[in-house]
Every structure is written in C-alpha cells, then in structure tokens.
Specification:
Shape: elongated
Strand content: under 5%
Structural class: mainly alpha
Keywords: Membrane, Transmembrane, Transmembrane helix
Distance between the termini: 36 Å
Helix content: over 70%
Order of helices and strands: HHH
C-alpha cells in the first residue's frame, strides 16, 4: 500500500480515538498524551502527502471553472 494513504488512515484513526477518549471521560493523562502526540502525527501525514509520487495531469487553468 502507498505510504501516504497509510499515514492519512493512521492519523484519521488517531483523531477518532482521541475524540472518543474525550467523550468517554477517560484518564486526563491519556488525553493529554494523545494531544501531545498529535502534532507529530499531523506533520508526518502532511510530509508524506506532499512527497507522494502522484502525477497530476490537470492544470489549475483547466480545472478552475468546469462549466465549459
């Protein structure tokens, strides 16, 4: 599987776990730990998406208004 898809899935799952932990009033230590880890995961996801070897065939001028 492609690395950028894995990173997006992991960070999305992490966000879901974080929100559920807050709603269930789990340990404040756990919530703070998840909160402190989240910027690292977010940076990892952004870097992996931006470095992904995906070729884009459309240009901004061609796709801006698609009502032609």
């Amino acid at each position: 599987m492609k690395n950028y898809l894995v990173s997006v899935g992991v960070v999305t799952g992490f966000l879901i776990v974080y929100v559920i932990a807050i709603q269930l009033n789990l340990s404040m230590f756990l919530i703070w730990l998840l909160f402190l880890i989240s910027p690292v995961l977010l940076i990892w996801m952004v870097v992996s998406v931006l470095k992904a070897p995906v070729e884009i065939k459309e240009t901004f001028d061609n796709k801006w208004y698609q009502d032609n």
